[in-house]
Write a structure and sequence with these properties.
This protein has about 260 residues and is of the alpha/beta class. It is about 40% helix and about 15% strand. It has a single domain, classed as NAD(P)-binding Rossmann-like Domain (Rossmann fold, 3-Layer(aba) Sandwich), CATH 3.40.50.720. The chain contains eight helices and seven strands, in the order H-E-H-E-H-E-H-E-H-E-H-E-H-H-E. It has a seven-stranded parallel beta sheet with strand order 3-2-1-4-5-6-7, sandwiched between helices. Helix 5 links the parallel strand 4 and strand 5. The longest helix has 29 residues.
């Protein structure tokens, strides 16, 4: 197979949850540019439809849909609707995340809400689409974790700001890496692959000082990730170019964790 064909997603159906967020936007665009029909889904259906319409106007195949990752009924309805309309799903990108907890002192209720989306809900949507992939013996799932699923938080990055990182985020991002390995072992005998991407800081246009400089001092490349930086790795893991890679966590951090 020609190397260009290894990256071709023509004829594939892909789902990107949280597909209009900071990472979701370039990831859904990358999959569409590679030829996939991309379903962009989150709680905000109108926003997903708006982003999908922009991709369609550029000649790509995309549509927006809505679901609530804290509700199993909503997840199953989304899965059934998608499989009925498209027959199968080849690629699932688990990118949706709930940020109900704001810091260490957050309430336990906020912790529970976070787990409903980021642990229970994530497993529910994974299983809803992974089972049909296993039955077909074809498909790939890509989980979006974080450098905070790899290393402890560096609170000095937040010095002099009103920013911090909450403990639930650290908990479920580490757990996501472990779940990836479990699901890769479960689905591997059927030829279905499961991998994780753990990105570091992103979008220097939004980040403000002194956080930006304090963060970048730890990064080998001395910058945050930019829009196109995640497109290559998502396409690699979604395509046949990575057909012998599963159960892995690819760290996309410019050297932050090294």
């Amino acid at each position: 197979m020609h190397v260009r064909d290894l990256f071709d997603l023509s004829g594939c159906t892909a789902i990107v949850t949280g597909g209009t967020g900071l990472y979701g936007t370039p990831m859904s665009e990358a999959l569409a540019e590679a030829g996939a029909f991309v379903i962009i889904a989150s709680r905000n259906k109108s926003r997903c439809e708006e982003w999908a319409s922009k991709l369609v106007k550029r000649g790509f195949e995309a549509k927006g849909d809505g679901y609530d990752q804290s509700s199993e009924d909503s997840i199953l309805a989304f899965s059934e609707r998608t499989l009925e309309q498209h027959g199968s799903v080849d690629i699932l990108v688990n990118n949706s995340v709930g940020r109900s907890m704001q810091g260490y002192d957050g309430s336990l209720e906020d912790w529970r809400k976070s787990m409903d989306v980021n642990a229970t809900g994530l497993f529910a949507i994974s299983r809803a689409f992974l089972d049909p992939m296993i039955k077909r013996k074809k498909g790939t799932m890509i989980n979006i974790s974080s450098v905070q699923g790899v290393v402890a938080p560096d609170f000095s990055n937040y010095a002099g700001t009103d920013m911090t990182t909450p403990p639930d985020y650290q908990f479920h991002k580490h757990g996501l890496v472990g779940l990836t390995k479990y699901l890769a072992a479960w689905a591997g005998p059927s030829g279905v692959r499961v991998n994780t991407i753990s990105p570091g800081g992103y979008n220097p246009e939004v980040a403000t000082e002194p956080f930006l400089s304090q963060y970048n001092r730890r990064v080998f490349l001395e910058r945050m990730a930019e829009y196109d930086d995640i497109k290559g790795v998502i396409l690699f893991l979604a395509s046949e170019a990575s057909r012998y890679i599963t159960g892995q966590n690819i760290i996309l951090d410019g050297g932050y964790c090294s």
